[in-house]
Amino acid sequence: GPGFLLGGLMFVGYFLQTEGLARTTATNAGFITSLYVVLTPILGLLVFGHRPGGHAWVAVAVSFVGLTLLSVRDLGSIRLYSGDLLVLAGAVGWAGHITAVGHISPRFPPWMLSMWMMASTAMFHLIAAVPGGLRIAAASSLDVWPLLLLTGALGSGVAFTIQIVAQRTLTPVRAVILLAGESLFSALFAAIWLHERLALHQWGGAALVLAAMAYSELSARRPPEEMIEPASAP
Question: Whose CA is closest to 121, among 1, 22, 5, 33?
Fold first, then answer.
């Protein structure tokens, strides 16, 4: 069903990104993952024939440049690694997930769609974990439960349910530009709570992401131009 499809796409995004991170650098992974901003409108065009307007492409381009600057601390440190293709495939999975949510969410109750999506994702991850051995004792440790509550219930369950509700009225392109703000807020909270320092170009990237979000919203809310009919001949 639809929830099964969304869960599969979410699993592809999570699993391949995680596997790729073990074989590449965080810098490469951050840069490649940001490609989902560009891949989302491309997938929408190829799969559903949705043609974003010029304003949308401008916002996508600015957001991608901003994400690139924000995720790459050392601009001279990017080199190719074996895990890069896995991370790229994960980015395709995330782009597919956003595109599919935009197509499916208006047709089903959000809570039901979210429930089946999360259950399917958990099932796929459980199956993928079997070959490496399930560590039941470690997973049931009291130290793990607060992390599960924060990342599983709130960071995944609540967050993705809100995304499903929002995408009932948002286009996938507008949604992906707003979701790009995740990297911006992550960087800001890391600077505030963990005292991490952003390089100058990273602050520039954060500003571009914020500008793309504002531009996308202002363009979407702009009233359509009225059609002016030619005056009739006397």
Answer: 5
